[in-house]
Design a protein that fits this description.
Length: 311
Amino acid sequence: MHKDIVYSVKSPFRSEMNILGYRFGKGEKSACIVGPTRGNEVQQLYICSQIIKTLSRLEKTGAIVNNNEIMVIPTVNQYSINTEKRFWAMDNTDINRMFPGDEEGETTKRIAAGIFNAVKGFSYGIQFASFHTPGDFIPHVRMMETGYQNTSLANLFGLPYVLTRKPQPIDTGTLNYNWQLNGTNAFSVYTSATDYIDEKSANQAVSSVLRFLTRMGIIKYNCHNGFIATTLEEELLMSIRADVSGIYRRFKEPGEEVTFGDLLAEVVDPIEGEVKSQIIAPSDGIIFFAHGKPLVIENCTVYKLIRRLHE
């Protein structure tokens, strides 16, 4: 393992923020793994740490195939992790909306440009990201529909689902989108959690990356075959919204199968304690996403449902 600084941000009031890259093997730029760009992505940081730990062990036993380089950047935003802010602590901007970046731009654009210079050119790019709405997911691989996406490759992670998304203007600044446009097969891996450690889904994510690297001939690692993924289009997921604001009680979890009329959640009056609204399943299906905060606001998406799919 070789550790180096891939980008450094100077600060007038504290030491510079050095963004580190951990490199394994030598040769062609085969795979790059990027961890959190946001300060609350603790689960994603933990997953990257476990990947670095495992790759270090595999490299010592000669399990990285010759002429392959793997680079892991465990985080690009230590400042926000330290201050417990989701976005860049100084101006509340999102680094994962700034790619490919601008070397002469504002701070987060310069960071994005520095990171993108370091990660472009790899054959495969894997990012651990989180959703803009707080909540929990079924573990899955997410891809932008840029015309360069390859769902067959995404299936090799062995996670239960592969989700494709038609890019919106807000998506054109993400690392996944810009990786694809620059010739890298890009995948975003989502696990069950963001701002806390879910050990089970973290282990599943680590195994999925090692499984993918093995199937692409980059490492030698004996692991379970995983799932044959179900491929979904994000726009076909059914959004279920809260019709009032209040304290949120969740009764169904991601991955659970529900039938029409099942009680999914309740919204309680925060002052008087009475149930103001019950959220009912409008269709049979499997819960793909579930809101995770104790409070909910009116018209907020609290569930996303895979309609008419059964376990």
